[in-house]
Write a structure and sequence with these properties.
37% strand; alpha+beta; 7-stranded antiparallel beta sheet; 27% helix; single chain; 8 helices; 373 residues
């Protein structure tokens, strides 16, 4: 009887131990499963945070720099109160230092930086700060006043992070844009640029700013403010599609209407500045004029605001050799539609040298195509 009871107790003990180990295993497996599920959730959340915008910013922002340009300005000031007691109000010129803050984009790892000309205009000294905190004294390699673009050069023993060029001709209305720069000088002392996002609101906008005529501007609603000038407008791939240049505002701040110089135009200016020191316009040896009246448009058999009239042209000039004559209407050059005389001169001054240029023109209402160089 005692033996049976002993065996019974042993069996019950073994059964309890077996159940205990099953329970512990189940709890451990549940805890491991919960931990794995939590880790997977965290990874999913982290992946969802790393959007295409975040990736584009990470790719482009290391190449966007802060620019501080110091210039000496003269100010007409009246003499102080003590002096005025004896000699009256005598104005005199007083010199002071003025600092302009802006942005720039590293376009070459050897130290070439693209910015707006108005950011560094008449500067006595220019300091460039890259996002990793390094500061460089920059020299002006060249500039183009009419395009409001300038190229700076800094000397460095190491390579700099350069931005990748995008194609501003292939932009879609409504696609994402990212503006990267130094608005209001906020990143001075920090070096990290500010980022705003928006969309391409429009293309081929025209605007005159301080005697500079800009054609084919990119319009975006990404916030652009003073200090953003010269900074980068990039696409969802982090590629440069424009140089932020000007805003349209009634308050002086961003109201969702900003403009950028297209990257394709900026690249053309940069190439000429680096090679020649400035833009070298081709000598086309012709003059054009706007089609200003309905009567003239009807006589030329062309719609208003379409093309420019060739008013003078030299014989044996490149365009004359291409078959264009006085009285023809030039409709487009290199695929760009012409609406005014300003369009024509702004576009042709940046044409590449010794390369064939496609041209569409109209003669007595019949459209024709040709090439010149």
């Amino acid at each position: 009887m005692i033996t049976r009871l002993y065996r019974y107790n042993n069996c019950r003990t073994l059964l309890l131990l077996w159940l205990f180990f099953i329970l512990v295993g189940t709890l451990c497996n549940t805890a491991y499963t919960a931990e794995s599920s939590n880790a997977a959730t965290q990874e999913a959340v982290t992946a969802s945070r790393r959007t295409a915008i975040v990736t584009a910013v990470a790719k482009a922002s290391p190449a966007v720099v802060n620019i501080s340009a110091v210039r000496t300005v003269e100010q007409l000031t009246l003499s102080d109160e003590w002096f005025q007691r004896f000699w009256g109000e005598i104005p005199y010129r007083r010199r002071r230092l003025q600092r302009e803050v802006g942005s720039g984009v590293i376009i070459d790892k050897k130290g070439y930086i693209l910015t707006n000309h108005h950011v560094i205009e008449n500067a006595d000294s220019i300091t460039v700060t890259v996002p990793d905190g390094r500061e460089f004294t920059a020299q002006v390699a060249g500039y183009d006043y009419l395009s409001d673009l300038a190229v700076l050069k800094v000397d460095t023993d190491t390579t700099l992070p350069e931005i990748q060029w995008g194609d501003s001709e292939s932009l879609l209305i409504g696609e994402w844009t990212v503006a990267i720069g130094n608005p209001f000088g906020l990143s001075i002392g920090d070096a990290q640029p500010s980022v705003t996002i928006g969309i391409v609101s429009a293309t081929q906008r025209a605007k005159t700013v301080e005697y500079r005529y800009h054609e084919n501007l990119i319009q975006t609603d990404a916030s652009i403010n003073p200090g953003n000038s010269g900074g980068a407008l990039v696409n969802i791939h982090g590629e440069l599609i424009g140089i932020n240049t000007v805003i349209h505002s009634t308050s002086g701040g961003s109201q969702g209407v900003g403009f950028a110089i297209p990257a394709n135009k900026a690249k053309s200016v940069v190439e000429q500045i680096i090679e020649y020191g400035s833009v070298v316009p081709p000598d086309l040896a012709l003059e054009v004029q706007d089609i200003t009246t309905e009567e003239l448009a009807e006589k030329l058999s062309t719609p208003m605001n379409t093309g420019v009239l060739v008013s003078e042209i030299e014989k044996q000039s490149p365009i004359a050799n291409a078959g264009i004559r006085r009285g023809d209407v030039m409709i487009s050059i290199s695929g760009h539609r012409l609406k005014s005389e300003e369009d024509f001169y702004a576009l042709t001054r940046l044409l590449p040298i010794n390369q064939p240029i496609k041209c569409e023109f109209s003669r007595r209402g019949k459209n024709r195509h040709t090439e010149f160089k």
